[in-house]
Every structure is written in C-alpha cells, then in structure tokens.
Amino acid sequence: MEFRLLGPVEAWSDSGPVDLGPRQQRLLLAVLALKVNRLVPVHQLVDLTWPSAPPQTAQHAIHVRISGLRAALAVAGGNGSTRSNGSTGAAIVTRGAAYMLSADPMSIDAHRFRALVGQARSETDDVVKVGMFRQAIEMWRGPALAGAAMQAVADQLCRGLDEIRLMAVEDCLDAELRLGRHRSVVDELTDLAAEHPYQQRLLGQLMLALYRAGRTPEALNAYLSAQSRLVDELGLDPEPRLQALYRRILRGDPALDPGGGIDPVPQPRALLDAVPQPRAVLDPPVVEHGVAVRVVDAAPPAVPTSPEVPAVAVRAVEAVPGQSAAHRTRRLFRLLGLMTTRILAGSWRKGVLAMAGLTLEALRLTKRYGGRTAVDELSFTAQQGEVLGLLGSNGAGKTTTIRLLTTMLRPTSGEFSVTGIPHTSQTEIRRRVGVLPESAGYPGHQTGLDYLAYQARLFGMNRSDAARAAGRLLAEVGLEHRATSRISTYSRGMRQRLGIARALLNEPAVVLLDEPTLGLDPAGQRQVISLVRDIVGRTGATVVLSTHTLPEVEEVCSRVLILDAGRVVMSDSVSEVTRAVAARRSGLLRVPAELAGRATAALSALPGVTVEMVGDRPDLLRVSRTAPVVPSTAGPDVGDLVDPDAAMNPALQAVLNAGVPVLSYEVEGARLTDAFLSMTGGVR
Amino acid sequence: MRPMLPVGGTLVALTALLALAAPIAAARAVAAPLVDAIEVSLDRSRHSTAVGDRFVLRSLVSNPGPSATDRLIAHLNVASLTSEVYVDPEDWSAERTQEVQALAPGASAELDWELQAVNAGSFAVYVVVLPGGAATAGTGPLAVSPPLHLRVAGRRTLNAGGALPVVLAVPLLLAALTVVARSRIGRPG
Amino acid sequence: MTADVGDEARTVHAPAEARRGDASWRVVAGQETRDLWISGRGPVLLFGFSLLMSVVTYLAASNSALNFLEQRETVNLAVQIAVTVGVLVTLIASADAISGERERGTLENLLLTPVSRRAIAVGKLTAALSLWFAAFLVSVPYVWVLGRGVSLVAEALLLSLLVGTLLAVGLAVLGLLVSSVSSSNKLSLSVSLFLLLALFTPTQLPALPQGWFGTLLGRLNPVDAGMNYLDAVLVAGHGWTADLFWLVSPVVLAVVAGGVLIGPGSRMVRLFGGVRAR
Question: How near does any CA of chain C get to the CA of B157, in Å?
Fold first, then answer.
C-alpha cells in the first residue's frame, strides 16, 4: 500500500488506486499518514476536520469516517489483512480515544521525500546530489493535501514540508550552479524568484546564474528590484550576503566565475573584514538612526596623525533611496558628525564597528580538542547595549564559547573581535571585557573589599582608586554592608554579586556572564537578573548571558543564540524564536480550585474550545482552541487564520466574565523552553 | 813518679775535652752541611695561643753550601706532646707542603705557614725540607728545623646556658607572631 | 534607534583610565606574600623550623665533649639544615602556587586580568622566595650562638645566604613549572617533594670512593654540590674561591630555570594543566 500526500491525497495498492471516499475521509487519512505510527487524539482530528464550529456529533462522525477508511483499505487488501506474499499492509489502529495509522513510513511519499532530501544533503558528489534532489522534488504533484484540506489546515499541517521542499530546491540549485549549469537553471530561478519574492537565497542564486550567463545588467537589476521591494514593503535592506554578492558582481570578481570556488551565497562575514579600500569605505550601507548611509569615497590624508588615529576626509556620502528627503538630510548631518568622531577616535575598524554599534563579533569561531569539536564555526555579532542570551544543553559549547571570547582558550580557527580589537591582542581584549566565570572561586580569607581592590589593582589602578572603585561597586551590587566581611562568610548569592562587581571593575564594553544564577534561590536569581538589567541600562555595555534558565532569558535578553553540539541552530530575537515553533493552540490556565467548575463551564460554552483538567490538579486547566475564522468569499469550507497571537483572548475573557480570577496563564508551545527543546533535541 | 801525674791529667783533660767536643764536633758534623745540605730555621721557638686562633709561622730555608741545590719540597708537621690529644695536621693548616726553587750557594728562601690551633694542649711544630728535583726526588738527606713549642689554651666557647636564650626566645617569638596573625584573620568582619 | 549622537559618542567604551598603579608583578607578589604570611602557612612553617633549630642548637651546646672541629661541624650542620628546610618550604609554596589556585577556582579570575602570565609567575615566585629569606633570618641567631666561639658567624651566614638563595630560586622555579603543568595540586606537591628528595638523598650517603661518573653526578646535582661547597669552606677551612666548581650547578640551575620561567615557561600559566596549550 502506498500513500501520496504531496499533491492530491491518494492511496495506491497493488491493484490500483484506492477509493478513499469523501474529502473529510481523505483528510483523516492524510493526517494519520503524516503522523504515521503515532497516536492522534480524536479531538485533534475533530479540530482539523472542522476548524470552526464542529457539530455536536463530530466525534461520532470521525468514528464513522475511520470505519469508512478501514473498509476502503480492507477492500484494497491493506487493513491488517495478510497478503498472499505474507506481508501485512497498512492498518488503522484504535487506542482509547486516539487513532494511529500503522504502516511503513517509506510507504508514504511525504516521509520518503524527507528521507531522500536528507540523503541528498549529506551527499558530497554534486551530480548525485542533484539527481537525488530532483527525484525528491518530482514527488510533488501539487500543493500538499490538495483537495483534502482547507488552505489553513494544509498550511498548518504541511508548513514544515513546504519549507523542506523550498530548501531542497535551493540546495539543488546550489549544486547545479557549482556544476556550471547556470544557463539551464536561469529560467527555473526566474520563476522561483517571482513566486517567492522575499527569498533572498533564491535571489542570490538568480543573480549568480545571470552573471555567469553573461547577463550582468539583468543580475544587477534583479538585485535592485528586490532591494526596492524589500525596502518599500518590509522596510528591510537585503542581507549582507546578498549585498556582498552585488558588490562582487559590480567588481566582476573572478571568484564568481564557475569553478571559482565561491558558494552562490557567501558565508556570513563581518561588516568589514578587510582593510578599507580607498573607495567605498563603508559599504554595505550602515543603518543608523533610521538612515542607511554608504560612504563611497574617503581618502586617507597624505600624512596621518598617528598610526592608531588616521584622519579621514569623507568626500561623499550617499544615502540609500527609500527614505524621505528631509528626514534623510536631517539625520545625515548628525550621522556624519558621529562617523567623524568615531573614526578619528580610533582605528578604522573600531570606528566603523562602533558606529555600526557592534561591540562583539565572532566569525567562524571553532574549537576542537583532538577529534571532538566543542564549538563549530560559530558566527554572530552583538550590538552595543544588547543582551544576548546564549542557550544550549549541557555540553553544547556555551562555556567554551565564553572562554574563547575571553581569551582563556585559543580558537582552533576563526576569529573574533571586541570593539574592533582582534582576538590576537589578548591583553587588550581582557581590558575590555568583564567576566563572571561559571565556576569562579574566591579567596575565603579576604574581605570583599580587599578582593575587589586587589583585582582593581591588577587592572592597573593605584591603591586609592582601587579602593574607591571597590567600595563603589560593592554598593552598586548591594554588598556595602558586608564589604569588610570575609568572603568565606558570604552566601552563594552574595558571591555571585561579588563576581558581577568584579566583572564591572574595568568598565567593560562587553560583559560575559556564565550561568550567573546557578545554584541561587528564586530571590537570588531575581536579584541577579535585576542587576544585569541595571548594568545594561546604566553602562550601555553589551551583555552575553549564558544560562540554562530560560525564563530569565525571556525576561532580560533581546536576542538569543541557541547552541547545539557546538553549532548555532538559531539566532534571532526571543519573540521570533518562539514564534518559529509556537503552535499557539493551547494554554495552561490556573484558577482557584473551587471555581474551576465555573471556569470550565464558561469555556465549554465557547465554540471550538475544549477544556480538560491537567493531571489531578483541580486548579489547572488545559484550554485548546483554534483561531477564530471569518467567512471568506471563497466558500464555506475555506477560512483564513486571524492573528494566532490573540487566539486565546476570547477564552480568557470568558473566564473573567464568569467572575473567575485568572491566577496564571501560559501559552503552550510558545515558550522559549519549547523552542529550545525542539531545536536541541531535548535531553541528552 | 811525679812526672806521670801531669801527663795523665793532661790526657784525661784532653780526653774529656775530646769527649765534650766530640758531640759538638759530631753535632757540628751532623749539622754541618754536606755537599748538598741546607739549613732550615723558624722565626721563633715558642708560641702560646688559644683554641681557634690563627697565626703565621715563618721559616727560612738557606743554602750555605758551595753548590746550588736542586728543587726542594718543604713540609709542615704538627706533633702532639700530650698522648691523649689526637692531631690531624690537615685541620691545622690547609697548605702543609710548599715548593722551594733551587737555591744558589748562599741563597735562602722564606716560607710562611698559616696555622689555626684547633686543639688544646702542648704541640711541636716543625718544618722538614726534602730534595724534590727530578733526579733527587725520594732521596735524602732531609733537613729539619728546630721545633716550635706551641702551647694552646683551651676555651669553652659553647655552653648550654649561653644558647638557652636563643633556643627559647626565637620559637616563642614566632609562636606569638603566628597567634597574632591568626587572630587577625579570625577577627569578625 | 533613538539615542542621540552625544549619547553614542559617550558610550564608546575604553578601559578604565585611572592613574597607573604599581607594576603588575609587584601587585601579585604583594598579595601572594600577604596571603602566605597573614592567612597562610608561612608563620606555622617558620615556627616548626625554629623548633628544629632550637633542638639542634641546644643539643650541640650542652655537649661538653665538643671540640673545636666539632663546633665547626655543628655550625655547618645548622647552616645545612637552614638551607635544606628553607628550600623545602619554598618549594612547597611554589608547588601550590598555580595548581592550588586552579583547584580553589581563583586562577580564572586572575588570568582574566590584563596581567601578563610572566608577571603572575614572577609575582608568585617572589612570594615563595619570601619563605626562604624568612627561614634564613630565623637561622641567624642560631648560627651566631653556635659559631661565635669559632669565629665562623659571618662566614657561615654569608655562605648560607649565597648557597641557599641559589638553591631556593632554582627549586622554586622548578616547583612553579611543575605546578603549572600538573593536573592536580596533589600531583604537583608529590612531584616537587619527590624531586627534592631525589636531589637531597645523595648528600646523606657515606663518602664512598667515586669514579669519574660518581664525581660528575655529585657536581651536577645542585643540592649535593651546594652542601659540598659548604663543607669545604666551613669545615675544611678552604678559601671561598678554592672550591668554586661546586657552585656551578646551583648557579646554572638558578639561571636556566629563571630564564625558562620568564620566557616560554610563563605560557604554561594557564587555566588548565598539561604541557600543551588548549
């Protein structure tokens, strides 16, 4: 028995196509097939079949449809019946209030597609790789679950498959370009770029294919059109990689030629990774104060004032089109002043990076111990004033990363810089970073004041300055009343605060905190997090916070970097990370136990809402519903999702209207924990 | 008969004279240099000192003979005149052997010997000179200086009573410092 | 971004530009010395040493049979005890210097400062050597009591200072290097003490007739050579320059070890033990 979901939902047996019955029956089979060999609760099947207003007899209808499917499969010789060759076909199994399709996953084209794409990715021979990708892509006969599911439901069920398909297409095209088949893929790329106007990788591939085909003006036009579309519609500039490709095409970089060894979309790189050229000093444009500025000409003076402080004459500045003229002009002058100040205050790189607000950047940072890779090609940047959360399971490479950035360990390859200081200048780096190591110890016989004063002297202060700085910092972290007590009498929380004070001694540009709340009680954790917020607010330092405690990342971090086995699996704002995996279909609601009944009644009265108790906790309810549907002109069976973020608001309102206080509410699947677990594979 | 007494007396006197002179003659004969003989003398015959004191003994090696001597070796010895005191000459002087170059007729050489009196008692110190040339090494005769009679007074320089203050005070002082240091750490903050 | 230009210019971070303090190695040395003497084992070790010296001195002083030569030997004994024990406690301090901090978790914070590894090594070495100089000072009254009757005090003290300092510097540096590469403090202390024992044992063997190899070993072993030099001058009464060849190996040890520590050896002062950089 073979099941096909990548297109119209079909089933095929040895004797030909199987009649799967009406649309809803086909949908049920598709859902079970997508989750082959896994139990799917009946209520989930109800939600998918009737996204809004399921009938009272919905569950009964599901049972009837399942019976129908079983009959269809049995006729085709698949429902558990043993065939003449002794093999058993697919079967729909009942377990309590759930159903499962028991079948060989490779009999379902969606799973075969995934497996084939995975094999193609790991294939090193481009010719074979292309063949495998093409084979996988050709499995698609149309949109997934076509004719069986409403668009919204199909999107929900098959979003992952669509993404994989798109990535497979992109990877395939990459391989085709490496094989020099640029002419043959131009048309395909043109169509794809039109179909996916915001996919910058496709755009990059199209640009490269056009360039290699000798159609440079069209390549450049493609970029400029996409750029103006992105700016106008989304207010975004193209990615740095795309901009770099554009510049390379402009220069006619020979590395772009076939066999030049360059990937169609170059790896991420730092804003400036070379000595600035006499022309195009600050290119790509830097977005600052809402203005994108590109310095196109800057001439070093004939006699520099000093090696570290080159004077710069900025001759021309071009603002990227797309901004209002007046707005542009006003901001431009302020920006010029800022640029000059920065560039004159330090080296080229420092000045430009500082102007771009970058205080920390890492580029393909790698650390290997023999055969084991602890950190693998880690690349990221951090802005001034940003709090970057560094997440990962035990052994993911967080502490190794922090130790690399603080020069405690030497990278095997790659580079990083702090405020423009390259990692090879270890002493200078240490002057600019403040660190709270994970397993920091403190000399018990010294007082907090003596210890900090000593550390301050190691940073170059004289005795009196050191003593003053120590006293001031102890007061800032709330330890002034214990300054003259021995550290051996400090609690764990006090030691962590002492460690934070020590990390701030040298007024660092970047503060790295490795598990600052480890071993602390909730009050202590809150104190430390509050301190971190103060640090950022007061000093504007960049903070890199390595932690296991996901709620504190959600609370204080602006961006999060998730590591798994030494690699970055996600780097984005916290909200984007959670949005990527959020299902937003259910939430956990806590109400007073004695009013749980009233809350349940209020929720059950809402259409499309199911309520169930969680475990044996009378005060905790799991509330599930789909987003509200508005009628569409396309027909009663088609609906549009409206604002999934606000999907649960009517439910909460209903509870409040019933006079039941909401003690706590948490959206399931929208927590950073869920995102983290899904990206790192959970417990090791 | 009377004329026999004066002759006998004269003979006796002569014999006595000869007997007395003989040792002198003999001594002179012994002391008198042979063809290659030399003379050794010390700058003093008596010296008194205390245990531990150092002093310098000067000796003179001279060649009164008509011909030049070969190369010579001078050696210092210390002998105990008290039976129960053991002397190890090495402890008294580090340099107990000195070379003397060949002496021309009538020439002489001065040798200085540094000694430290390491034992208490009565000692004889003397210098022996031997032929030391390539051809004459190991042959005689030896020339010896008259002995220096050395008296060394004993001195009790170390006694328990003298050491007690240091033996007690130093550890006590350090113990007190240790206690003070520890109490500084233990002071509540 | 809504920050003002002025705000942006202000927040260009620069290191704390306070008035410059002392040289880093002096700061490290000062703190380490304070740790050793005020809250550490320094006073206790010194007290134990003084007890040993008191016992030896009292026994010698109460022995009426001691003659002049034996008094010189007693002074020599006191000097050798001072040098040996002084070097031992210095070695213990240096063997704990890096590996001990590593185990106590305080090394990482030290390495995170802009102080160079060399300055850290020199500072810790200075602190360890303070134990030797303190032991020498404690030995002064004892040597005076024992040596005043035989006019040997000044000579004995100067010799003790010379030989002891050479050995203390050389062995303290070795201890520091062992501490840098040891994976645990226990290992560091064991290896260092074994090293000292291996160097010291030949000095206690009876003076057997030796061929050229035995003599060469004796001269190569800095501890053996140093003790032989003390014997030659204090007991045998030789001049200072007569037996200078005995001082060759202690001097070479001090110079080479110091050079290694200040040069490539200082790079071994790092977060993890082991010989290779991580």
Answer: 5
The answer to whether position C148 is within a domain reads yes
C201 touches chain B (CB under 8 A): no
Task: Using the predicted structure, report yes or no on whether residue B31 has a pLDDT greater than 60.
Answer: no
Task: For residue C13, give the nearest of A409, A459, A508 by CB distance.
Answer: A508
Average pLDDT over residues B158-177: 85
Determine which of C2, C4, C5 to mutate to test the interface with A (most A C-beta atoms within 10 Å): C5
Spatial contact of A544 and A639, defined as CB atoms under 8 Å apart: no
The number of distinct structural domains making up chain C is 1
- What residues of B are in contact with residue C142 (Cβ under 8 Å)? 166, 170
Give C102-116 as a DSSP string.
Answer: HHHT-HHHHHTSS--
Q: How many residues does chain A have?
A: 684
Chain A residues within an 8 Å CB radius of C35 = 443, 445-446
pTM of the model: 0.57
CATH class of A180-265: mainly alpha
Q: How far is CA A229 from CA A201, A205, A223, A224, A654, in A?
A: 15, 18, 10, 8, 43
Calculate the average pLDDT of chain C: 84
Parts of chain A belonging to CATH 1.10.10.10: 1-164
In tens, the pLDDT along C223-266 reads 989 998 998 888 877 888 888 888 999 999 999 988 887 788 77
Q: What is the mean pLDDT of each run of 10 residues along chain A (684 residues)?
A: 93 90 92 92 90 86 91 75 53 90 93 93 91 94 90 87 92 92 90 88 92 88 86 78 85 74 40 33 43 45 41 42 44 50 46 63 90 89 88 87 92 91 91 91 92 95 93 92 93 92 93 89 84 83 86 82 86 72 68 92 84 87 62 37 55 88 78 65 51
In tens, the pLDDT along A325-336 reads 444 454 444 445
* C-alpha to C-alpha distance for A450 and A471, rounded to whole angstroms: 10
* Interface contact A488, partner B, CB < 8 A: no
Bridge partners of A543? A387, A511
What would the CATH number be for the domain defined by B33-153?
A: 2.60.40.10
Cα nearest neighbour of B182 on chain A: A445
Q: A597 vs A69, A619, A661, B150, C76, CA distance in Å? A: 38, 9, 13, 124, 96
Question: CATH top-level class for A583-668?
Answer: alpha beta
Min distance A419 CA to chain C CA atoms (Å): 8
Whether residue C153 has pLDDT greater than 80? yes
Three-state DSSP at A221 gives: helix
Bridge partners, A293 (sequence order): A286, A319
Q: Does the residue C187 lie in any domain?
A: yes
Instruction: Please give the residue of chain A at the shortest CA–CA distance from C1.
Output: A289
User: For the domain A358-442+490-579, what is the CATH superfamily, name and number?
Assistant: P-loop containing nucleotide triphosphate hydrolases (3.40.50.300)
Min Cα separation C168/chain A (Å): 27
- Host domain of residue C152: 24-54+67-201+257-268
More confident residue, B163 or A506: A506
CA–CA distance, C76 with C143 (Å, rounded to integer): 9
Q: Does domain A1-164 have CATH number 1.10.10.10?
A: yes
Query: Which residues of chain A are in CATH 3.30.70.100 domains?
Result: 583-668
Please answer yes or no on whether C71 and B158 come within 8 Å at the CB atom: yes
C222 Cα to chain B: minimum distance (Å): 26
What is the ipTM metric for this complex? 0.86
Find the CB nearest C54 among B119, B155, B170: B170
CA closest to B184 among chain A residues:
A445
User: CA–CA separation, B76 vs B94, rounded Å?
Assistant: 10
Contact B177 C43 (CB under 8 A): yes
HSE-CB of A373 using CA atoms within 13 angstroms: 13
**Tokens 């600019």 label which residue?**
A432
